[in-house]
Amino acid sequence: MKFYIVDAFTDTLFGGNPAGVVILPEGADFPSDEVMVKTAAELRYSETAFIKRLNEKEFNIRYFTPAAEVDLCGHATIGSFKALLEGGYIEDNSSYINHTLAGDLNIDVKDGFVLMDMAAPVKIAEIADNAGLDELYRIMGLDYADQKAKGVNLIPQMISTGLPDIMMPVASQADLEAITPDFPALSDLSSRYEVTGVHAFTLDAEEGTTCHVRNFAPLYDIDEEAATGTSNGALTYYGYLNGFVKDGDDCRFIQGEKMERPSVILSHLKADGSGNCSIQVGGSGVMLAEGDIRL
After folding, report:
1. Domain with 14 in it: what CATH number?
2. Are residues 144 and 270 in the same domain?
3. 223 with 142, same domain?
4. Are 147 and 269 in a shared domain?
5. What is the pLDDT of residues 218-249, one digit of tens each?
């Protein structure tokens, strides 16, 4: 089996978020779930994608963390289609279908840039009671009353565009950098709320940038992630629901700065006027390595 390591959501080597990509031989089926989890753990990246080619235009991709399978992973999708392009399996400036556990998603490859449809956005719930807010911010190493005093008037909401996350607003880039989660407590909270983790963001951003963000998913053995396509897709929808993203907007999210792996995730939102939205998330990627994996 061919494998690749791709830095996604960046055009600079050692930037962005690295993903493992395994391309199954023609006609081969997926290995067992146990083998794929162990492979992801061996490669030691937050997600590894396993790709089964169905035909020239359609692919079935499954995504594994070192702990478990997840329905969808944005940066590993970027990595997958960059690897498919690099390996000669697909052509540039073409469209493809990615069959995932989150649904069948369109993928556009344009001049080496990968733009992917997110699953239909859904607001699952929100945390509006004082006890819940105090608990969430305390677990993340902040004080909710302090954040409110600094002008945070948005409330955390659980949003999914393929994977559910808690969108958590903070007042400033300094507050974002100051986040120091209690990871065991965050894992328990994520399990209780049935979410992947917390996607913290601030609107304190320079012109041309929508938000600076950080993402935490210790329940899936990911303490912090440098770039998350699904979470920023969810944040795009959160922005639409809360008035800072409009129909037709192109958004730009900066992530990974605290990890010294700066990433740029772009998104586009289109609303049909009746409350339904479609969201695309995109980015570039850089190939770091390739080789053979002997499964």
Report:
1. 3.10.310.10
2. yes
3. yes
4. yes
5. 999 899 999 999 999 999 999 999 999 999 99
Inter-residue contact 140 to 147 (CB < 8 Å): no
Q: What pTM does this model have?
A: 0.86
Which domain does 105 fall in, by range? 2-115+284-292
Phi-psi region at 112: left, alpha or beta (left = phi > 0; alpha = psi -120 to 50):
left
Confidence of residue 295 (pLDDT cuts 50, 70, 90): confident
SS3 assignment, position 79: helix
CB atoms within 10 A of CB 65: 22
Tokens 């399978």 — which residue? 69
Would you tell me how many other CB atoms lie within 10 Å of the CB of residue 23? 23
Environment class of residue 290 by beta-carbon count within 10 Å: exposed (0-12), middle (13-18) or buried (19+)?
middle
For 170-181, what is the mean pLDDT?
98
| Parallel, antiparallel or unpaired: strands 122-126 and 157-160 | antiparallel
**Mean pLDDT score of the chain, rounded to an integer?**
95
- First and final C-alpha spacing in the chain: 7
Contact 142, 179 (CB under 8 A): yes
Q: For residue 172, which of 199, 149, 147 has the smallest C-alpha distance?
A: 147
